Amino acid sequence: MKRWEIKYMKKMISDKIGKKLILMTLCVFVTMLGMGCGEKKESSDNLEGSLTDIMASLYENAQLDAGFREALDSFETVELTDDLEISILGTDEITYTEGVVSMPMMSSTAFQCVLLRVDDADVETAKQALKDNANPDKWVCVSAETTLIESRGNVIFFIMSGKNEAYALNEAFQKL
User: Fold this and answer.
1) Which of 14, 29, 49, 136 could be a cystine partner for 144, CB 3.0 to 4.6 Å?
2) 54-88: pLDDT as tens digits
3) What is the pTM of this model?
4) End-to-end CA distance of the chain
5) What is the pLDDT of residues 3-25, one digit of tens each?
């Protein structure tokens, strides 16, 4: 190769590298600019609406088997009252602003699903009280296979039931 050919090839290579470097820098700059210009929203994980409506939504959207769906006709969702607290929550020491429980009226199945709305500052304390006092053996002749206690914002989901139903309803709760 001649000297001028080598010099020409070096210039072409350095030009290509320079162009790629400038292009990559420009891409990074535009990406960062786009990320910085997005509108910042206040996001709250608190669920809106009544707990009765939220419970209905859980049953509607959960991936439940056909047999359990049929059994839902015998379930009732009621407001959690002082009279029900100890039998449902295992304690009357939880402070909540709204509470509902869904359970079968006549069944040999161990099942209850509870939604509690508490003050934001009390969520973890309430969840711990539920964990400490939940009794999956409270039913006559049957026991709940699974106990789950989760939360989204200021709403606590507390279920004692069979494994499949508990996880399906919890998944629907997490997707709200």
Assistant:
1) 136
2) 999 999 999 999 999 999 999 999 999 999 999 99
3) 0.75
4) 70
5) 656 666 666 666 666 556 555 55
